């Protein structure tokens, strides 16, 4: 088991891609700290699902965009689990609109959760990883962070920022045995995409060379590799998980 005796913090871990990642890591022996906002019942349900794999699982309500709140939770996880070996930054939101119609609140909200939240979590685990001389950081970007997308200027900017942040942190921590990588999912079947009309889904599917919509497990498999010792010599990378959509 690749993650036995290791603790993984997964933000946005109570559903969708985050839950798939947490499940994959737990199946392979990781203790899991789920960070979530929103419905407490989702956090409880996720903890119950993950507990079946026999590792330690705890849930923490945490607004990652809040610097002090995220620090408090990181410190609490270290105290309760003993250490952190893996950080998965997956928490994210959308507020899709054309720039013409996008107000400041729409822009700030997405940047604060997606980009600043990722910074906050890296900042608060940075010294811990340095002292351990070990760590795996994997953040969820998006192909729109590479290509841009009409109606998603805020989201695209936040994900492009995550890519730049990842590469910078990778250079800073490489000599300490800490890797920092990102995944860039394409069109993945989640709650966020399920609300789209079937006509839109079919149009997007037609653009994907693999001719299918991705699953959260497709992303989780890549994240698990990047968080494992199999990827000890991989850092600063952004791996697209998009069925070839952004080739």
Question: What is the helix tally?
Answer: 9
User: Structural class, from helix and strand content?
Assistant: alpha/beta
Q: Overall mean pLDDT score?
A: 96
Order of helices and strands: EHEHEHEHEHHEHHHE
Shape assignment: globular
Per CATH, the class reads: Alpha Beta
| Sheet of most strands | 7 strands, parallel
Characteristic terms for this protein:
Rossmann fold, 9 helices, 7 strands, 48% helix, NAD binding, EC 1.1.1.100, lipid biosynthesis, oxidoreductase, fatty acid biosynthesis
Can you tell me about this structure?
There is one protein chain. This protein has 247 residues and is an alpha/beta fold. It contains nine helices and seven strands; from the N terminus they run βαβαβαβαβααβαααβ. The chain has helices spanning 16-27, 40-51, 67-81, 104-132, 144-147, 153-173, 191-194, 198-207, 216-227; strands at residues 7-11, 31-36, 57-61, 86-89, 135-140, 178-185, 238-241. Strands 3-2-1-4-5-6-7 form a seven-stranded parallel sheet, with helices on both faces. α2 (40-51) links the parallel β2 (31-36) and β3. α4 packs parallel to α6 (153-173). The model has no long low-confidence stretch (mean pLDDT 96). Its EC number is 1.1.1.100. GO terms for molecular function: 3-oxoacyl-[acyl-carrier-protein] reductase (NADPH) activity; NAD binding.
Quick rundown:
The chain has 247 residues and is an alpha/beta fold.
SSE arrangement:
Blueprint: E1 7-11, H1 16-27, E2 31-36, H2 40-51, E3 57-61, H3 67-81, E4 86-89, H4 104-132, E5 135-140, H5 144-147, H6 153-173, E6 178-185, H7 191-194, H8 198-207, H9 216-227, E7 238-241
Parallel strand pairs: 1-2, 1-4, 2-3, 4-5, 5-6, 6-7
Helix pairs in contact: 1-2, 1-9, 3-4, 4-6
